[in-house]
Amino acid sequence: MSTLGIAVIGTGKMGADHVRRIGRTVGGARVVAVADPDGDRVKAVAAGLDGASAHTDPAEAISAPGVQAVLIASPGPAHEEAILHALERELPVLCEKPLTPDPAGALRVMEAEQRLGRRLVQVGFMRRFDAEYERLKELLDAGGIGRPLFLHCRHRNASSPSFFTSEMLITDSVVHEVDAARWLLGQEITAVSVLSPTPSSAAPEGLRDPRLVLLETAGGAIVDVEIFVNCGFGYEVRCEAVGESGSAQIGEGQSMVVRSAGLSSGEIAQDFTVRFADAYDRQLRRWVAAAAQGRVDGPDAWDGYAAAAVSAAGLTAAHSGVRTPVELVERPALYL
Amino acid sequence: MSTLGIAVIGTGKMGADHVRRIGRTVGGARVVAVADPDGDRVKAVAAGLDGASAHTDPAEAISAPGVQAVLIASPGPAHEEAILHALERELPVLCEKPLTPDPAGALRVMEAEQRLGRRLVQVGFMRRFDAEYERLKELLDAGGIGRPLFLHCRHRNASSPSFFTSEMLITDSVVHEVDAARWLLGQEITAVSVLSPTPSSAAPEGLRDPRLVLLETAGGAIVDVEIFVNCGFGYEVRCEAVGESGSAQIGEGQSMVVRSAGLSSGEIAQDFTVRFADAYDRQLRRWVAAAAQGRVDGPDAWDGYAAAAVSAAGLTAAHSGVRTPVELVERPALYL
Amino acid sequence: MSTLGIAVIGTGKMGADHVRRIGRTVGGARVVAVADPDGDRVKAVAAGLDGASAHTDPAEAISAPGVQAVLIASPGPAHEEAILHALERELPVLCEKPLTPDPAGALRVMEAEQRLGRRLVQVGFMRRFDAEYERLKELLDAGGIGRPLFLHCRHRNASSPSFFTSEMLITDSVVHEVDAARWLLGQEITAVSVLSPTPSSAAPEGLRDPRLVLLETAGGAIVDVEIFVNCGFGYEVRCEAVGESGSAQIGEGQSMVVRSAGLSSGEIAQDFTVRFADAYDRQLRRWVAAAAQGRVDGPDAWDGYAAAAVSAAGLTAAHSGVRTPVELVERPALYL
Amino acid sequence: MSTLGIAVIGTGKMGADHVRRIGRTVGGARVVAVADPDGDRVKAVAAGLDGASAHTDPAEAISAPGVQAVLIASPGPAHEEAILHALERELPVLCEKPLTPDPAGALRVMEAEQRLGRRLVQVGFMRRFDAEYERLKELLDAGGIGRPLFLHCRHRNASSPSFFTSEMLITDSVVHEVDAARWLLGQEITAVSVLSPTPSSAAPEGLRDPRLVLLETAGGAIVDVEIFVNCGFGYEVRCEAVGESGSAQIGEGQSMVVRSAGLSSGEIAQDFTVRFADAYDRQLRRWVAAAAQGRVDGPDAWDGYAAAAVSAAGLTAAHSGVRTPVELVERPALYL
């Protein structure tokens, strides 16, 4: 078991979190280079690591000595360039979602992989590594509730960060349900509709929050997603799959129930880092193990592309108010 | 406390159930006349009662001696005529839903009441008497979760009777959510859309089951209803109201949890008579008490009309595949 | 279906509640006489009834014209005399628990019934009529979790009335679990132990509250009962039966779940009248139906006696701090 | 961040699991030596590690080059000798429970630590690292439910291994609740009683399973533990703490709820490795971090000793059938 040298691109909240996780909870890996346009920040992060180099240029970090794999946690628009650099060096990549902000960028990433003739890029759709989602996937695959008819999804955040836009509800939040639905059902999304109630007065001025996003799939299932990023009461990700012979629900679990003053209550996680802490850990561990063998063991570039295509259709549906079909290129052989 | 004499019109499953309930669980009332086109059936029901007369003609039963109130449980198309007979005699009426199969009939009932200058007709939307719905209504009225944004509804039956049609999913089943949404939110429905997954193979050939019905309200809320009348696993009516500051869920209660063979399980009611037994009892008790004073203390003819209008728009939306606005006449003063 | 004339003895909280219930929710019965030592109170109650006579002497009420059955809701020490009066007239009796405050009184009641050669007395252990308890009983009888090994019981009240004593925790509260255990398991109690934590500071000075009461049964099962009558947070009656092949839990049901301010909460009933409203209704309906036929269809005098004997042993165990065997007379043939 | 060299003593189920966990999920640590009396087994384990030496003598492994910390997962009787070897070399120790099979051995370990003047030994009571237990501890410490009065504990295994004895129900199973109760309440145990129902027919011949173990604490709280190691339906660890103003329950969480065939069900974990996987990971991570600084950050030798003393009293109570006081030596200054 040798140690995998990783370059981490982007040292904001997510990037710093990954650095910490690699150090503490992932055996067999260490960070050897970090990159961030903010020179002070990247130096501070590198200083906490044993022998890691600090860079403001991602390309430099990727080609630093000892780098065997690349973890990209920079903002979405910077992903494509960093991925292409990593692919030039044939390095495995774990890229935070979205793969790229639009389908065109994702297609270019896939072209690069096809030229290499191998998949190296994994997208950070970490719900696939969540224990509850994994059990739901197993149940569906085993036919435990028959052919799936509906996925009823709730995706709630206590509040949204100041930079959040109406578009990001779809491209940054619902994109998780887009990938989860595609993965759980094994079907592509074929159309998107968006219904918008009068926005919550708790949402910042101008933000269309909440919304109900309706996805139709190639296999005739319907996915409804309530996205509500200023729900106030916590972070909740729930999903009920309804099949021909039963239903299965995840995300309802409450660990501690307190009875007091006439109420029986459980705490609601306030943040995705609590709810999905284990999934992030597991994602990283499995990627490290696969990366050491040059394999991808998780959502790949095709998954990133499909999510980008659905997001684009979702934005069109949100703006036009009408159901919008999703068009996908033919799936290249590499991704079958 | 004198005893209220009731004529029961229709002695099928629902009618017979009401007769039994009046006898056993409702003090201060007794059945004095029963009517049903099936002469043998109505005679058998009357035989079990002390001094009740049997009729094949509803009008005759309504004008039988001692009748002070009328409970109508005949098929929907027979409702209007029976109600009008009862109104001619100024008798309080409890009419099973739907008030009438179409909005036009409901308007004629309302006209008759307006001529009398008083409301006498109550519609059998018994969810308004269910303890859980009552608590949800109180919470919403008290602003406990802020302005409502969504109602997520699930309405499931283990299996549908042989005579059930695709239209009845909307006019007989979803009509309960239509009334519940109007009552809970205090808002009329303004538009309907219907999404249909590939029908379940468990549904009879030709039945479009399940469906997702989307209602928009005058106050900018969205109501999504999964109607699935062949879900196989039981009778379930659940509702989650999402407001600006919280969410409230009903219908999740499990009375007994059994741990055995690797599973922790609760029984799911197989029938609405189990889930809503108390609501039916309470509806009847409160109607008897109000009827004795010539008042209506529950959903009235306007509520029946509005439900019929939404059902009609729902059918149009289901057939056309596009969002259909709901048009209501101006609300007459009597129903304000 | 003729109407059963009932004399209600005692018009305090429980008695008044029964009078109301007979009027509104029980068909086929009416109150024809009421008795209470408080002359003003009993007159006020009678005034609200159609043609009921008011008495300060229970014996007078029991022999009033039209009395066909007797419901006793006076304080425990007054039960025996009223029951014996009713038995002299061969009238069916529904007597609130405890049948009598001590085993000797219960034995005298049983002797009176044996002289008559028939059972007429039912004890108000209404949990036997609760839907959840009924399901648990069915499950146990059907062998659904194998031979029972444990009953883990929680019996909690928000707060205790001012007159409550340390003895009453056992004789008035735990007595419900004593009967429920005997009925659920079909076994007599053979020994009692009592463990007492430092009393809660929320309990009135001098009240040993809470306590853990341990019952051993003839069939080798163990019943532990947490009795806590000043728990502060509500009224809770929960029971987990553990058998050789599984466990079954009742009393956990929450009707509405609210998510707000970081918590997911359900309301806890504040009173037994809420939690067991249906059981009280059902008890009364079934007793009325059985009384009309001169039968007992519920817990009888033997059950009242056995509960009294266990309570007596429980008091001894509580005072002495050591495990105390329960001694029962041989079960008379009438009660087999 | 240098890498901590660990010697693992014992490579049975628990030991092998720890080796795997250090490799995959714990950053900053690696196994440099393994010991097991089974020479083939220990060689096989070492072969899967990069540069670890294999030993049949624990002392040899402990003094192998690069060893900076010792993890002991051998059978209980072998613990003391291995710990003393590690303490001679002033190495931090993580020792699986029980610290030693009897209080005398634990006292000798504590004496060795006192001679060194520092605590180096941590006992593997990993419930202290479980997220739910941590939340319960926080709640209790914050006074969230007032002074604790009861802990109601359920500890169930699907089935017991062939070598399990009636004594082990107390010394190997209930010992977890003993430590959890001491830690949660911050109080020593003062007396133990044991009640035994007729053993389950599912238990192996001669095994007194299940049992109800009653612990009394120095602060006047009562702890009841149902231990049932052949319950058949899964692995369950539940705990309800009841305080003066509320109650808090853990271990009820179900991640996925499936509705099918009239039942609503959740899976029950079949094994502690599922239920407490994260706790084991966290225990190891925190110990590695603390060990690197020569500190103990978890249950220490005093905790191991107290558990052993309660277990010894528990065995006496089980054999004699009477309540048995627990005697502890005065707590040495090092452990305050």
TrEMBL record, chains A, B, C, D:
Chain segments annotated as transmembrane:
none
Q: Where is the GFO/IDH/MocA-like oxidoreductase domain?
A: 133-248
The question of whether Nucleotide-binding is a record keyword is answered with no
Which key words are in the record?
Answer: NAD, Oxidoreductase
Catalytic activity, reaction form: myo-inositol + NAD(+) = scyllo-inosose + NADH + H(+)
* InterPro entries from the UniProt entry: Gfo-Idh-MocA_inositol_DH (IPR050424), Gfo/Idh/MocA-like_OxRdtase_N (IPR000683), GFO_IDH_MocA-like_dom (IPR055170), MI/DCI_dehydrogenase (IPR023794), NAD(P)-bd_dom_sf (IPR036291)
Q: Does the keyword Membrane apply?
A: no
The domain of life is Bacteria
| EC number in record | 1.1.1.18
Q: How does it assemble?
A: Homotetramer.
Which family is this sequence assigned to? Belongs to the Gfo/Idh/MocA family.
Q: What does this protein do?
A: Involved in the oxidation of myo-inositol (MI) to 2-keto-myo-inositol (2KMI or 2-inosose).
Query: What protein name is recorded for this chain?
Result: Inositol 2-dehydrogenase
Native species of this protein? Streptomyces flavotricini
